[in-house]
Task: structure prediction
Amino acid sequence: MMSDAMKKSTKKTINILFTCVGRRVELMQAFRKAATEEHIPLCIYGADYATDAPALFYCDKQIKVCKIRDNEYLPTLLKICREEEIDLLIPTIDTDLLLLAENKALFEEQGTKVMISSVESVSLCRDKRFTTAFFEKCGVAAPSTVDRVEDYRGEFPCFIKPKDGSSSINAYKVETPEELKMYAEQVPDYIIQDYISGREYTIDILCDFEGNPIYITPRERVEVRGGEVLKTEIIRDETVLKEAFDIIKEFRPCGPITVQFIRDEKRNKNFYIEINPRFGGGAPLSIKAGANAPLAILKLLKGETVSYEKNAAKENLIFSRFDQSICISNTSVTEITDITEVGNLCKDETCVVFDLDDTLYGEKEYVRSGFKKIAASLPEVSGVEELLWQAFEERKPAIDVLAEKAGLDHEKKKELLSLYRNHTPEISLYPGVKEMLIRLRKEGKKLGIITDGRVNGQELKLTALGLYDLVDEIIITDRLAGNGDVELFRKPCEIPFEIMKKRLGTEGYVYVGNNYRKDIALRNQGIRKIWFRNRDEVIL
Result:
């Protein structure tokens, strides 16, 4: 039976909330890329305690939350998921995994899936003593583990680390018994393991919500800094795949997990050391190699079945990672309900750039205009305009509905669609917009428009509205794509914003739009935004 969250995900836009997004920029970009390339409407919500966390600026909506240990953390997440109709919650760090696993049912009761494994599975990951026992249960090798100095009977060097640690924090190679005693006094709640020498590997695993594997991607950790992989190579190894299947069978993951092992070359054996029941920091590298976890997750949310794909990631690809900066200043958002307020809010800026549809004019007026043209072309059919408008208000494909009701063939339907897209529209600017634009130019401000949509249709709108004479520069993003994929250049892609800034040659820059996800998303760096909260906009 389909869950409430699955039923809800049949709505047009999929909403995903990532908790503690921190520096997970690559992961946000991977989800955005998958949605864009497959034309899946996606709204990414990012939650973090730190308002300057880099990954927040690559999310569509940014939410500040309290610290995880705060009693209000869980109620806050539940409220966000309920009010924003979140389809899926994905944690990204170890800290809140157990809390979310323990309260998974509360989220699912209100229609939000949580991509987290069972409480038992998460618990064994958080305590490395249990992790070792689990690996042994799976029939794979693991270094012997004790949690008291007095009980260690192995050789030196050995390894000491916190039983619930992560990112190599407080993890040390120990050369002598004296060093071991010293570190045991410094490392809280430690475990001691045999030191395994060899090459380090990670297996990025993605399973569906029932624990069935979709992708298993082993890769060598060629270079590591502070627990984060800097260089990695995708490998194929039948032994590793078999061992991964044995682990999956026992663990039954929900969504992503990462498994780490060290290959002891002398003994020709893989020693498994760690499981993280979440996306690992290097998971985007497996995604780039072809194991497209974000796309698989989006398909699952749409109710599709996604089967195991053995060789999704290309073998022998080597990835090298680097740091990148993002400007997080001057990105304030002002909310308005009257578009003409812009004229009074841009005293300090020298450049004002607008969205077009439902910002400078009402797109419903354009839809009405197109429906009138279609009705005029079908005088033999009664009630055409009313039928089209009713279908539009019900968010149904209006021309398809008309064709079915009127018995129109495929060719006629194509003709009507072309008529709609290429008609000269009868539309007008919102009251006061023309006067506002004229006043802004008289004040010496440069004006621009950035709009998505088919080039011919947008040009016809711009001409009908007289905007070519009222602004300095216009960018229709679909034109930037040439013969390529237009979705790659549509907002919130940064490219048209950067082109506009270069064309207008000014630093004082404000952008005005109605669509929060496309126009106001804060990853459009260093640009002040004005959000026109249009209560009568077309909702796609």
User: Anything to note?
Assistant: Residues 333-362+427-532 form a domain with the Rossmann fold fold (CATH 3.40.50.1000).
